[in-house]
């Protein structure tokens, strides 16, 4: 976080950063409350709601029945009445049951009533399960599904700093927000400012500068891209990695400026290619800087099938650094020596969860 | 007391006249480009219930919005301007008949997706309770909306958290053209489902405005005193077609005789009859109120039609808080 | 329908074509049944289920409670048990309530259980309301939202022939299908084969050949594109209109071949640009024939806000032929004389509905 | 009769031993890369209910799958191979513990999304009825799943259409670590909600396999005879942690004493005690069955671990019917 004085920053894990943002926002604003199934339990949503419950108790960290649709609508009603609920889902897949309330109520509230009656600033956190045989219905990343709908902000924090900053922005802003967090990032460490500093929606960051090819990535794939870049550097390919941070609004400028410089684009996402994040990024480039493209765009995403459980299949399903390396070499037309497959960021993670 | 009762009648008369006049304009002009679900014949539910509330209490409606909006005290000219899609409408023409709002009187909103507003009302009532405010949230919905899972989920949450919310079911026997019997099992009732979910419920003749009002007063008082949620199942009947201004005797999904029987049970006529003894001048008063309401709505229509439409340059305004209006 | 002998074809409206496909499939296959709220009533879902009810009665054309989630799950269970339900929604917006059952159950059923246990071939019809102040939650086209998920087929028929043929394909295939129909097309007439002939998913059609610019469109926008093409022809611009018919699978080849020839792409959709149909089409071109692009891609879609009710706003919100003309002139760098605005395909339609 | 009762005990013993052995392997090897929800302590529900069904009847389970799968007659080696992610698994390794299937015995599937399989079971039962088949669909779910709107929607549909479906609620008092009292209002019950929805329901001691079996026989018979749906609320208790092989006395969401009390009410021990008089050799038999089951599961594990994994080249197979397997 450039601009922060050193002593303001320390290393936290991704889950600690989310917990800190939650606690700081609750301390700063008594309207904030955490709502979700089991948010009050001993695990505290993988640690992210545990300290909040210890500090603020069951009136502000509220365990709710297994009713995702009503819970989302209730959060809308509470937000309209002046509270700032954060609704937490241990799997983003459960958001399909809350989709009507998020898309038909939260996203449209402000506009439908004329724009000057206030909105429904509910914050929804969905955790993406990945690895350890999560299976077809416990491992999806529906960020693009929500990103299609006007009225929402949708973010996919890749670092502990952004996990904190984007949650702070969500809880201090006036727009309904969907935050898609990847469970595999929870134990990653990174520098996080102590201050309750928001990270604005719609502002991406260059995670690594480069000159030959741009890899635009979201969430976990930012790290896969960085590791791919390391390896490619050893083979003379300079990769620029763009972390979009939020997919709605999307920072078109940072994407286009990078591709204008590198002339090559690879998009990496944890969700499917069709009508997904990778499609939108390619479209933004095709709309704005098509002439800059010196090679076809490549998308690194899961293949077009549901997620399997059996680990060899699951490993193959979850595209990562190895596939990004291959795509970059292809668009750079470097037929580099067969490179050793890279171990996934998530390797060593001990299931089950 | 008398004045209370006549006030309820007057309110019903006003809503009836307003909707009948609007229906004629709607049919004849084809200028209100918004789907309208009239409450003609169902006035006692909104009037009886909402007379038991204060402006601090919030009500959410579903798609049959005009009666609850007006009964809560919603601004008539802003309603009519909304129906004509004008910038001066209560939702600046963005919402239409189904998305009404008047925060100054506690009409918190209405929506087109069956059942969803029930959960929203629970959320607002929950917020009131969490802040320790003695305010009540209410939600109007039909018999058909009770088939949506969100209704059961909302009842359960409200009961567990003792939310000050009054669930108001206007049971008019139909969901569009589907009769209750094809949608809900014989021998069950909305009231029974609410009670099984832990929400105290009463079934009331929804065309008896005084009975409705008394039941609503009890429910609202209990909520205000922290007694938790309540449900009112109010049996009533829609006279006109599901959506739009016409009658639908000829469509065959319900008999002309059934409609006529319910018209016989007109909530206004019944209320008038029941106060006539104590209020001999009531018929004269009703004629007078009808005239006043006719003038009021006619003026509102004329006024609205002269108002400007929204400016296309403002199309995006309000989609996000950042895009101010 | 090339290949059909003349006497096999007659003019039907879009709704008549859907009705005919339904009746023919029910007559041919006793496993087919129609399920939906009010499908049995005097309106018969804008006429599409009326004859089926008259012919097959309430046991096979079943009015159901207002329970979109359970109805979708029940249809899955019925399909798994060997029936072929068509679930009908009078507004596609209601599909958000059925989304979990469609995405987590229907789409994944075959794969989750190993691929050899059969699938859940449920057919879901969602009608898009448009015009006459439908409003923010009664006018959405969620085809891209479903198109993102592997396991489904998703189609957007633009003509009466395709409305029939794609429904026949859905009811005679083994894949769960989502059909998004636009209410504004219901009264359009077109030639429809009498035979119960399927139109395969994943095969687009060139609705009008041209040489200067390709307009790829879905559903209603195909007609807006055709009308735009007529007007542009009078100004010397030759437009090729591609009707994708189905968006999952998507006919990448027909899109790329066309753009390879014309060098210019405009994508027209009834839903939003971000993460939508228009994004995927642009991405397919950027992946496969980027070098063919002689101009930036243009997307003609609704602006990034919910749908307003007031008619001047609604008219401006619903992009159509006029915007397509403007986009085509722009990519062709023809600063043609200010062209008269075109009346929408839907003009003259009498609401309310 | 006796043999019936001992058969039920034997089935419970087998499931108990299988799950205990699997739990040890799961913990020690970390090779079954799939989230497992053990039914240890809850065997009486699956065994008692499914012994009342035939292979033509279909059962759907939720996420706690092994007991219903085995009690319905599901193939053990295919189950174990599935847990180890092998191609020979019942779902070819694509589904894992939560997505089991054995169509040959009527185990129609199981799923991870709370409540959704309830609606699927109603759909299959509806198909049976529409075709005039005397078959029954059953669906197992927990107390927590009854909070999902789809449960209420499914009850309503089943009652309206008199679907031959038996709703089996295994009420083990918790949803992960959330106790019933924080999720459902005091004074209500799953049984009461079902009855209010028009579905006949009974509450039975879910650790009394004979009582469960008798209730299930009634429900299944009524369904088969066209009497419509039924719900069984079976009170039971999960011994181990919600997901995974361990015990969780130390996590504090429930007391060690509560767990110990329920272990005292072990369904197997209770069944054994109740037949001891008429079946003096029962303890010897149980020891024998335990040994046989231990050998059976140990062989299945050894066999599964030697089996090949799916081939990565087949990754896309089965996503679509067109991509054959
Ligand atoms: C989720 C959803 N499903 C279906 C509809 C279509 N619809 C609009 S009004 C209506 C009838 C509702 O009946 P009821 O709740 O009894 O209210 P009433 O119209 O009788 O006042 C239906 C089915 C909808 N708007 N939302
Ligand atoms: C829709 C949905 N919400 C939440 C979850 C997370 N979850 C998995 S199991 C479970 C507990 C369910 O409790 P219950 O239904 O009583 O079954 P039990 O585990 O006690 O057998 C929860 C909340 C889920 N899988 N699906
Ligand atoms: Mg009704
Ligand atoms: Mg439980």
TrEMBL record, chains A, C:
One of its GO terms (molecular function) is oxidoreductase activity. Pfam families: Transket_pyr (PF02779), Transketolase_C (PF02780). InterPro entries: THDP-binding, Transketo_C/PFOR_II, Transketolase-like_Pyr-bd, Transketolase_C. Its EC number is 1.2.4.-. Its cofactor is thiamine diphosphate. Keywords: Oxidoreductase, Thiamine pyrophosphate. Residues 12-188 form the Transketolase-like pyrimidine-binding domain. Signal peptide: none annotated. This is Alpha-ketoacid dehydrogenase subunit beta. It comes from Saccharothrix xinjiangensis. The lineage of its organism: Bacteria, Bacillati, Actinomycetota, Actinomycetes, Pseudonocardiales.
TrEMBL record, chains B, D:
CDD domains: TPP_E1_PDC_ADC_BCADC. Its cofactor is thiamine diphosphate. It comes from the Bacteria. Residues 11-310 form the Dehydrogenase E1 component domain. The keyword Oxidoreductase applies. InterPro entries: DH_E1, PDH_E1_Alpha_Subunit, THDP-binding. Gene3D superfamilies: 3.40.50.970. Keywords: Oxidoreductase, Thiamine pyrophosphate. This is Thiamine pyrophosphate-dependent dehydrogenase E1 component subunit alpha.
């Amino acid at each position: 976080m450039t601009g922060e004085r050193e002593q303001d920053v320390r290393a936290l894990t991704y889950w600690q950063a989310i917990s800190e943002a939650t606690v700081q926002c609750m301390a700063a604003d008594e309207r904030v409350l955490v709502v979700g199934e089991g948010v009050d339990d001993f695990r505290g949503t993988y640690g992210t709601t545990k300290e909040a419950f210890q500090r603020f108790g069951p009136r502000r960290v509220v365990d709710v029945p297994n009713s995702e649709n009503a819970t989302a609508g209730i959060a809308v009603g509470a937000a309209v009445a002046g509270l700032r609920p954060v609704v937490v889902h241990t799997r983003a897949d459960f958001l399909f049951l809350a989709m009507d309330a998020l898309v038909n109520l939260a996203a449209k509230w402000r506009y439908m009533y004329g724009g000057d009656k206030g909105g429904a600033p509910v914050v929804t956190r969905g955790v993406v399960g990945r690895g350890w045989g999560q299976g077809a219905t416990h491992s999806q990343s529906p960020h693009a599904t929500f990103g299609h709908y006007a009225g929402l902000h949708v973010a996919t924090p890749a670092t502990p700093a952004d996990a904190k900053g984007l949650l702070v922005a969500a809880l201090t802003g006036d727009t309904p927000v969907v935050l898609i967090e990847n469970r595999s990032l929870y134990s990653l460490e990174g520098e996080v400012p102590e201050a309750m500093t928001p990270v604005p929606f719609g502002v991406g960051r260059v995670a690594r500068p480069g000159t030959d090819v741009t890899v635009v990535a979201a969430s976990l794939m930012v790290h896969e891209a960085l590791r791919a870049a390391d390896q490619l550097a050893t083979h003379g390919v300079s990769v620029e990695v763009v972390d979009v941070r939020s997919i709605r609004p999307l920072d078109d400028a940072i994407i286009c400026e990078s591709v204008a410089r590198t002339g090559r684009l690879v998009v990496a996402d944890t969700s499917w290619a069709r009508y997904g994040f990778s499609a939108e990024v390619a479209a933004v480039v095709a709309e704005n800087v098509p002439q800059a493209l010196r090679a076809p765009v490549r998308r690194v995403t899961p293949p077009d099938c549901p997620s399997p459980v059996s680990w060899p299949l699951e490993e193959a399903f979850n595209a990562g650094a190895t596939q990004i390396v291959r795509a970059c070499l292809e668009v750079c037309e470097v037929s580099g020596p067969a490179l050793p497959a890279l171990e996934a960021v998530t390797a060593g993670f001990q299931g089950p969860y | 007391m008398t004045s209370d009762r006549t006030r309820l009648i007057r309110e019903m008369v006003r809503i009836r006249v307003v909707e009948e006049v609007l229906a004629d304009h709607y049919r004849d002009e084809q200028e209100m480009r918004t789907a309208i679900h009239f409450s003609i014949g169902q006035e006692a539910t909104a009037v009886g219930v909402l007379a038991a509330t204060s402006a601090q209490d919030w009500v959410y409606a579903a798609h049959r919005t005009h009666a609850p909006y007006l009964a809560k005290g919603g601004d008539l000219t802003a309603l009519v301007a909304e129906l004509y899609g004008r910038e001066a409408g209560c939702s600046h023409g963005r919402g239409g008949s189904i998305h009404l709002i008047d925060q100054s009187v506690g009409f918190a909103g209405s929506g087109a997706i069956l059942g969803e507003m029930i959960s929203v009302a629970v959320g607002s009532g929950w917020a009131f309770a969490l802040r320790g405010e003695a305010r009540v949230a209410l939600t109007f919905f039909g018999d058909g909306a009770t088939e949506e899972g969100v209704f059961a989920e909302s009842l359960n949450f409200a009961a567990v958290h003792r939310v000050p919310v009054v669930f108001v079911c206007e049971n008019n026997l139909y969901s569009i053209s589907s009769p209750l019997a094809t949608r809900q099992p014989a021998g069950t009732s909305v009231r029974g489902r609410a009670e099984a979910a832990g929400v105290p419920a009463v079934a009331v003749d929804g065309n008896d405005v005084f009975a409705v009002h008394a039941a609503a007063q009890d429910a609202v008082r209990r909520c205000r005193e922290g007694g938790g949620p309540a449900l009112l199942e109010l049996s009533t009947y829609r006279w006109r077609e599901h959506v739009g201004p016409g009658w639908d005797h000829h469509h065959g999904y319900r008999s002309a005789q059934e409609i006529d029987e319910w018209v016989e049970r007109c909530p206004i006529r019944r209320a008038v009859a029941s106060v006539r003894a104590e209020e001999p001048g009531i018929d004269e008063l009703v004629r007078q109120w009808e005239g006043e309401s006719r003038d009021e709505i006619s003026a509102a229509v004329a006024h609205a039609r002269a108002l400007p439409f929204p400016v296309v340059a403002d199309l995006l305004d309000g989609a996000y808080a950042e895009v101010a209006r």
